[in-house]
Amino acid sequence: MNLERWCQLSKREQLLNIKSELFRAVNWQYKDTDIFQGCLTRALDLIGTSFNDPKWHDDLIQIIVLYEEVAKVYINQTQNIKSIYNAI
Is 8 contained in some domain? Predict the structure, then answer.
């Protein structure tokens, strides 16, 4: 999704899109590594796009922490994807 379209979404809608990718990741975590990694990649891309959305500037630390936690799962530092999903 491009930045212009992403910025038109509310913070809630953005989080729901990110959560949707994390939900897919939870479902594929132990079934198909490639699909699992693809879901995480899309989630990281969406979170990264939020960095440039002005509506997140007051809450930037929260979106950065979310990015870091998903990135830890991506690099196999933790398997905690379901906890991240539930926290959103």
Answer: no
3: confidence class by pLDDT, cuts 50, 70, 90: very high
Give the chain's length: 88
Cβ neighbours of residue 82 under 8 Å, at least 6 residues apart?
A: 26
The angle formed by the CA atoms of residues 40, 23 and 32, to the nearest 5 degrees, is 60
Tokens coding 56 = 């997140």
Q: Is the pLDDT at 1 greater than 90, yes or no?
A: no
The tally of domains found in the chain comes to 1
DSSP 57: G
- Residue 3 belongs to some domain of the structure: no
* SS3 category, 32: coil
| 16-43 pLDDT per residue, tens | 999 999 999 999 999 999 999 999 999 9
